[in-house]
Amino acid sequence: VEEYRFANGSITVTTVTTLLKDGSVDVVQEYECKGELPELPRMGMQIVLPKSYELLEYYGRGPWDTFPDRWQSCHVGLWQSTVSDEYTHFPVPQDSGNHGECASVMLKQKNGKSFRVNAVDAPFSFSALHYTPQDISAVRHDHELKEGNYTVLSIDCAVLGIGNSSCGPGVLKKYSIDKSKKHRLHVNIQF
User: Fold this and answer.
1) What angle do CA 167, 173, 178 make, to 5 degrees?
2) DSSP string covering 21-90, please?
3) CA spacing 20 to 30 A to 81: which of 2, 126, 127, 135?
């Protein structure tokens, strides 16, 4: 159990991992929000892999990124991409590359070695980028953003919508993460 504290609240994360007979790992995470919290961008886990995990295949919404308030132009299917192609280079760096309603995501190296995450109870959202959220938020202009020597795989049970803050309103409440209820992520990881 881990607790992430904010000025007037916290998020408690309970994680249970089980090594299965086939060598895969079953992971269950539960998230409980308490007190006053800022708008949460996502709720889930990040797995940092070597940058060589470049080839991407997933079964979920695609082919371009989707968020809770921007998904209707994408349909569920089996998609292939590369991690390098998942980030959209906006003039002002911001989150991108999220895919919702995913049953599985697999990252592969050119030598065939793979890392796969499968949904167990419910679909998840994911992104795979060569940037951490801290990398993206630390710069003001796209040309300042430097690719990391890693692949950051985010697996989430809840994601904030995008809104339209650049030229209109922010995220509507119905597309924000509901902090009044417990959230649960249950996945199987194969490597």
Assistant:
1) 135
2) TTS-EEEEEEEEEEEE-PPPSEEEEEEEEETT--EEEEEEEESS--BTTB-TT-EEEEEEEEHHHHS---
3) 135
- Comparing CA positions, the residue from 13, 9, 26 lying closest to residue 183 is 13
d(CA 172, CA 113): 41
Q: Which residue has the tokens 């809104």?
A: 163
Considering only CA atoms, which of 56, 60, 63, 5 is closest in space to residue 34? Answer: 5
Note the pLDDT of residue 73.
83
End-to-end CA distance of the chain: give it in Å, rounded: 25
Query: Which tens digits make up the pLDDT trace of 159-179?
Result: 988 766 656 667 888 888 999
- Measured CA to CA, the distance from residue 97 to residue 83 in angstroms comes to 9
Ranges of residues in the chain with a pLDDT under 50 are none
pLDDT for 159: 93
- DSSP-derived pairing of the beta strands 183-190 and 25-36: antiparallel
Distance CA(181)–CA(176), nearest Å, equals 12
